User: What shape does this take?
Amino acid sequence: MTVRTKLIAGVALAAASLGFASLGLVSAAQAQTKEVQMLHWWTSGGEAAALNVLKQDLAKEGYAWKDVPVAGGGGDAAMTALKAMVAAGNNPTASQMLGYTVLDYAAAGKMGDLTELAKSEGWDKAVPAPLQKFAVYDGKWVAVPVNVHSVNWLWINKAVMDKIGGTEPKTFDDFIALLDKAKAAGVTPLALGGQDWQEATMFDSVVLSTGGPEFYKKAMNDLDEASLKSDTMKKAFDNLAKLKTYVDPNFSGRDWNLTTAMVIKGDALVQVMGDWAKGEFKAASKTPGTDYICMRFPGTDGSVVYNSDMFGMFAVPADRKEAQLALAKATLSKSFQSSFNVVKGSVPARTDVPDTDFDACGKKGIADLKKANDGGTLFGSLAQGYGATPAVATAYKDVVDKFFNGQIKTSDEAVTQLVKAIDEAK
Ligand code: BGC
Assistant: This one.
């Protein structure tokens, strides 16, 4: 989707939701008291299955669910819809949000306050500190983290890997050699959906692999100008250009989950994607180790580039608060953190949830997260709203997309444009 169509789709949706309210379908105070109105972009098979876990938990407690889905991975369209709803004074009970977006709404005074509940539930002790930086604003809890996703993963079809005689790549060069093998065997090597956020999410991993952990942090979290325009960053763009030569001719605009399906079906060898891709493998009843391989993007082992879905809790009238608190409490309960994340592909946003029910990739995800958090190699994903403000993330995605699609022709020009775009967005 272009930015313009996304905008139109988002605004149309928000308008539709306002329209329903004015028709009286959702506005009766009585109905809203025990209703959770939730805006989100979880519309793929795996995402919907995960969301169902929450809907069912709340239904058991007697809360009705008013779904406000806005399709589009990465959430750009959803955030446009959210903006329109909030501007119209039509705050949802909660919205799926990524890091810096929560802080923007909190700074604008739009969020509710969950601090009392947080105290009685002991969230301060259970939720990892890096997540609290985005869930707590000015000393008040304004959002609850649902999960921790990470983006530096490869998802490989095992049968295709065996067929081409491939082995797990350790370095970026190994990865290229593996992709070459697939190409020679006549299989699409790299499954990629040509949307700016998918390209940029992959590029996060490429930057980490090319420059290492310290470089990633300086460039992608600190936005250090010298790093952004360095030869290392140029090399990262060169590496991205190499990857482009392995995608199929129909990659443009393809949704991420249809792209995952190519790997699931064996139409492509590998996808570079956040572990929400695992939710699709799970929904298709595929087993790690047997049907597919999950491994860290070559050259990034030991580091985790994360994002976390937060439920941003908006300021709502007193009669809607009870449902909001019920949602918040259910979301951070230990049992939900396990049952939801097992299905979603992510890992718990609490440090005290056992990994018993998770598959091999989930167990690895949990262990990797702990190690990275302890060892100082846990970094926010710039593509996924945890590296910098939404404006900077948009600028970044735009430059990566232009480079990937040939409007920016060289790595030299890419770094120049990147520095300029980020500077203007800051
Ligand atoms: C979200 C995931 C979601 C993915 C694709 C990411 O931004 O964090 O929860 O599954 O987008 O829609």
Confidence is low (pLDDT under 50) at residues 1-30. Residues 41, 47, 73-75, 149, 256, 276, 307, 309, 384 surround beta-D-glucopyranose (CB under 6 Å).
